[in-house]
Amino acid sequence: MTREELIQVAQQFREEGFFSSCAVSIFDAQRTLCRFAIGDALEDSLFDLASLTKLATATMVLDGVEEGRFHLQDTLPELLPWARADEQFERQLQGITLYKLLTHTSGLPAWYPFYAHADFEGALKAALLLPRAQGMEYSDIGFILLGKVLEEAWQAPLDAVLRQRLVKPLGLGNYGFLPEPNQHILPSGYGNPQEMEIIKASGVQYPGFRPADQPIVGQVHDGNSWYAFSGVSGHAGIFSDLDGVQRLGQHYLNTESALKQSAMREHTSGRGLGFEVGEMYPEGCGHTGFTGTSLYLSKTLGVGCVILTNRCFYPDGNYKLTNPFRRKVNQLAAAHFGRQQKDSDQ
After folding, report:
1. Which fold, 62-170?
2. Domain edges within the chain
3. CATH for 3-52+174-344?
4. pLDDT at residue number 180
5. What is the pLDDT of residues 232-272, one digit of tens each?
6. What is the pLDDT of residue 344?
7. Spatial CB neighbours of 190, under 8 Å, sequence gap ≥ 6
8. Where does residue 306 fall: left (phi above 0), alpha (psi -120 to 50 degrees), or beta otherwise?
């Protein structure tokens, strides 16, 4: 499988309307094995990572556990002074541990429009009145709260914690919240049409949505992250080029930490500690982002793959899930790069 053949695969998906631009990097623990960009993307373009932000949040939580700042079985009221100071919060958040948040087994709802309230605590109280989930329920709210745990632990805003705890130590370069406007940033979409429909159906009012006919460039696409948290949140908001996501992936391919190796394995219902496992990630794990981003890692095969796209950048709001593209490229990475790497190690 050559670079040119991979580009042809990507071009075919682009022509079928899966995205307007994309950048892909396949790598092992030390090197870039194959890299390309098509459409308006460059190999160093910044993309809105959307929920790939959750892997940064999870990594910082795991680092805090290893340093003894907190434990996986600590509960939110134990970690957040404002949560134990309010009787309603203490009751509703009791028993929700870091482990449950990382594995999406906390029972918290998947989503709530925090921006429809004047303040965070009022929004959270409303969200906690929603029916509780049983088993695994992928929850943005859970990772919003993990971001609050990190801010409390380091007594600093989350963007500063990210720079000091992850970006600088791992050399992640342009990986971070609130990108500088002079960088080459790919547009992520037009407004938030899906969220507008969701809140309209629920009877919630919000007058502040971005114009549906203007491209979103440099502002996080996710509504809660942008409108409620000014672009800085534990569940979404990070922008990066290929290098930043790849270096975070290489950190995991190289790690000797028992906790981080455990994080990459299934704990319950297709979830590790922050990671997802399943058929999209051959002999490994990964995560996806709403805007069409993903990271795949296989420690067994010694290979990883970053896919960055802007699948929502269609003015009619008619966009497709990129899972078929993710699945195809990850399978090719595993088969044509991972196995070769595995054989060369023997």
Report:
1. Beta-lactamase (3.40.710)
2. 3-52+174-344, 62-170
3. 3.40.710.10
4. 95
5. 999 999 999 999 999 999 999 999 999 999 999 999 999 99
6. 52
7. 212, 213, 214, 215, 216, 312, 313, 314, 315, 317
8. beta
